[in-house]
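Dear colleague,

Thank you for sharing your sequence with our group. We've completed the structure prediction you requested, and as agreed, I am returning the results in plain text so they can be pasted directly into your records. Please verify that the sequence below matches your submission; if there's any discrepancy, let me know and we will rerun it promptly.
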Amino acid sequence: MDSLRTMSMHLQFQSAPAAELRSDEAWLTEYMLRIWREDGPTPHGHSMDSDFICLQELYDGATGFPAGAASLAINGGQPVGDPAEAEVPLVLLTADAVRTAAEFLAAVSFEQLWATGGAAAHARYGPRWAEADVRRIFRQLHADLAEFYGVAAAADHVVVKAAWV
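Please find the predicted structure tokens below.
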């Protein structure tokens, strides 16, 4: 995890009405880049540093949810363009997928996620980090992501995600 943390990876999320977005790689890249570089945080935006990788691993340990629900919030969605060729990988979630992600995030127990995957998440941070501190970080990441998706779902928005390295 330390090597991933030094890579300055970020996952940017932006929600919007579907009619405001184009499913065009060049247009969406410019849209997300403008928000990232110029506009800064927006009321319908969210971003995470490389911790999103471990958070997804925590979600992967969730049981009792529809197939694929655990992966929607971070890894899910339809790639826009060819991800292997893209300068900035983009993914688009439909409003239905956003609702499913929001439902999962609202229903999943962080305590249960931590009980099954917390030791691995803590180990990736290394021995300098106290378990309670890592747990607090991930609890907040989960709460923030759940809030973002809850607001997006309530507004019937789609979500576009961009991975920045």
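Summary note from our side: Residues 1 and 152 are 30 Å apart (CA to CA).

Kind regards,
the structure core
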